[in-house]
Design a protein that fits this description.
heterodimer, A: alpha+beta, Uridine Diphospho-n-acetylenolpyruvylglucosamine Reductase, domain 2, Uridine Diphospho-n-acetylenolpyruvylglucosamine Reductase, domain 3, Enolase-like, domain 1, four-stranded antiparallel β-sheet, 25% strand, globular, B: Ubiquitin-like (UB roll), 6 helices
């Protein structure tokens, strides 16, 4: 269908965007539109005003802050995917982007838009959660940061308040001897994953795992972190044994694409494969 | 709701228009500019029939509002080659019978144009992955993949 009628503004500053957003209780932020415009076409969203962030100054950047990478909310996914700094400093993020939709989507889709949309099967929220990243938001009361474990509140829900705008996404930069892996099971490449595992781990000088991050997508109402698997790996378990713990605490719903039991099975399978590949890459 | 003034460079020509915010770029191209090579099927970003180039990169014209394209450069199939000349990708579709009904073809041609610009000599696997965002309901894709391989040869990208 065609989108319903709405009004549109394209402010050029964050302050202007916050004022516009505050001017209308039914206003919604437009980033790249690759999730929002389908919702409009399906008439699942009916905002009276769209506040487009594309012309806001200062939201399109990739900044190296030493131990962290800060990426402006409106940075296009394809730019991040192709950025040598990201490939070098946060390879898990670079690789996960190749699984986001298709190139035609990533050319317009943004980092901040995907994270704020918070689809439980989407890669970018999963990466931010797995790595323990955070987001920067600005609202009428000023700036604040939200840690990833506080950010994702449920299906398409975040703790970003009404009237606030996500301005940047921050992820820790990887250190030496880091391995990573993105393993998904999807009906077709580019589809949302039935289940996906996003893994980054680091070895110490002796070759033992000193840090491991494992995120799971598609297995709940929000991205999940596989703490039990991580603890087992740190305690020395091999990938196959550790991955058996992946279903701990998960209760995915059944739908037309996959049953709950199948998704739990995939959580183990994708976790095992991701841990194995990440270990190989770190070695 | 109010109309918005936009100026969009479409196939090398600046086009100014007043549009409602809800008008998608695909509808703008088809209904305001009569550029009907950009096809619309699913209208929610799945099928790829409406693929165009925005600032040189492929994008779904059904997933962009016309107001979002203000000030940007859009290339449609009509702008990919001069006049009635067939470019190498179109010639390859002709030679390899890469279409049946032809509805999906414009989107495929633009996707392939970008694919071959990025990677002039792709493997069969890279071609199949590169076409993943475009649906065809007639061919079963085999002839389209062969057309891409033919286009590689016609463009002089083959080994």
């Amino acid at each position: 269908m065609k989108p319903p009628d709405f009004d549109y503004v394209a402010p050029t500053s964050v302050d202007g965007a916050i004022k516009a957003l505050g001017s209308d209780s039914e206003a919604k932020v437009l980033a790249g539109g690759q999730s929002l415009i389908p919702l409009l076409a399906f008439r699942l969203a009916g905002p009276s005003l769209l506040v487009d962030l594309a012309r806001v100054d200062g939201l399109d950047h990739i900044t190296d802050q030493g131990d962290r990478l800060v990426i402006g909310a409106m940075t296009r996914q394809r730019r991040v995917e192709r950025d040598p700094l990201v490939a070098n400093r946060c390879p898990l993020l670079a690789e996960s982007l190749r699984h986001v939709g298709h190139p035609q989507i990533r050319s317009q889709g943004t980092i901040g838009g995907s994270v704020a949309h918070a689809d439980p099967a989407a890669e970018l929220p999963g990466v931010v959660l797995a790595l323990g990243g955070r987001v920067h938001v600005t609202g009428p009361a000023g700036d604040r940061t939200i840690e990833s474990e506080e950010l994702f509140q449920g299906f398409l829900s975040t703790s970003i308040a009404d009237g606030e705008i996500l301005t940047a996404v921050e992820v820790p930069a990887s250190g030496p001897r880091t391995g990573w892996s993105v393993v998904e099971v999807a009906r077709r490449p580019g589809d949302y994953a039935l289940c996906g595992a996003l893994c980054q781990l680091q070895l110490d000088d002796a070759g033992a795992v000193m840090g491991v991050h494992l995120g799971l997508i598609g297995v709940g109402d929000r991205p999940m972190r596989a703490h039990a698997v991580e603890a087992a790996v740190l305690a020395g378990a091999n990938p196959a044994d550790a991955a058996e713990l992946a279903p701990d605490g998960l209760s995915p719903s059944s739908d037309v694409h996959a049953s709950s039991d199948y998704r739990l099975h995939l959580a183990t399978v994708t976790s095992r494969r991701a841990l194995t590949q990440a270990l190989e890459r770190a070695a | 709701m109010s109309d918005h003034a936009v100026t969009i460079n479409v196939n090398g020509v600046e086009r100014s228009n007043l549009v409602p915010a809800r008008l998608t770029l695909a509808d703008f191209l088809r209904e305001r500019l009569d550029l009907t090579a950009t096809h619309l099927a699913c209208e929610h970003g799945v099928c790829g029939a409406c693929t165009v180039l925005i600032d040189g990169e492929t994008a779904r014209a059904c997933l962009l509002l016309t107001v979002q394209a203000d000030g940007r450069e859009v290339t449609t199939l009509e702008g990919l080659t001069e006049g009635d000349e067939l470019g190498p990708i179109e010639q390859a579709f002709w030679a390899k019978h890469g279409m049946q009904c032809g509805f999906c073809t414009p989107g495929f041609v633009l996707t392939i144009a970008e694919l071959l610009d990025d990677n002039p000599n792709p493997s069969r696997e890279e071609i199949i992955e590169g076409l993943g965002g475009n649906l065809c309901r007639c061919t079963g894709y085999v002839k389209i993949v062969e057309a891409v391989e033919e286009a590689v040869t016609l463009r002089g990208g083959g080994a």
